[in-house]
Design brief:
Chain A: Belongs to the drug/metabolite transporter (DMT) superfamily. Small multidrug resistance (SMR) (TC 2.A.7.1) family. The complex is a heterodimer. Chain A is an all-alpha fold. Chain A is built from 4 helices and no strands. In chain A, 88% of the residues lie in helices and 0% in strands. Chain B has one domain. Chain B is 85% helix and 0% strand. Chain B has 4 helices and no strands. The chains are: A mainly alpha, B mainly alpha.
């Protein structure tokens, strides 16, 4: 069950990042609600997952899903540049963050 | 360092404040400060996302926030200081600086 919470937490983080894109496109109630509900649900589910999973592991998985998902959403739906250098550097950041979360 | 990247950097500084707040806040004022820090960091990140790609902004925000939190833990909360941690922070900074450099190239090409 904790893993389901964790994966849902990552999914809602992507919803939140999508909300950031929406707010920049069009300042509407729906855009702001997507942003706020996305991140709020994500934090609550992460907290639930951390009740039974180790904190570092939960954080690492959550960050990984959210950042990769957020990058993909930007590239696929909002016209963010898709060059390989950008993908490589985002990959380096994610690898380092996951490593740090696992070791601390 | 242009204005948009400055916003991401300051957003990450506020992220470090609220992560510390979530962990250590124990009275009403500390919690209010934590909530203000969350609001400021998200506001700056959204503003930066107007001109920079949102996926990039978010990756840098998470990356710098993580590095800052680990460094704050070492400096102020007695976390252990070891070589792998420093290596990972260095790797992370390479990723952030690299991402900034390629993003700048993109802006110049498109403008």
């Amino acid at each position: 069950m904790a893993w389901i919470y964790l994966i849902l937490a990552g999914a809602f983080e992507v919803v939140g990042v999508n909300g950031m894109n929406l707010v920049n496109k069009k300042k509407s109630i729906v855009s702001f609600l997507t942003l706020i509900i996305g991140f709020a649900a994500s934090f609550i589910l992460l907290a639930l997952a951390m009740k039974s999973l180790p904190m570092g592991l939960a954080y690492a998985v959550w960050t990984g899903i959210g950042t990769i998902g957020g990058t993909l959403v930007g590239m696929l739906f909002y016209g963010d540049p898709k060059d390989w250098k950008r993908i490589a550097f985002i990959g380096i950041i994610i690898a380092a963050v996951v490593g740090l979360k696992l070791t601390t | 360092m242009n204005k948009e990247w400055m916003k991401v950097l300051i957003a990450a500084v506020f992220e470090v404040f609220w992560v510390i707040g979530l962990k250590h806040a124990d009275d009403v004022w500390a919690w209010i400060g934590t909530l203000i820090a969350i609001a400021v960091s998200f506001y700056l990140m959204i503003m930066a996302g107007k001109t920079l790609p949102v996926g990039t902004v978010y990756a840098v925000f998470v990356g710098l926030g993580t590095a800052g939190t680990v460094i704050a833990d070492i400096l102020f909360f007695g976390e252990s200081f070891n070589l792998p941690k420093i290596g990972l922070i260095a790797l992370l900074l390479i990723g952030v600086v690299g991402l900034k450099l390629v993003t700048k190239e993109q802006e110049e090409v498109s403008s």
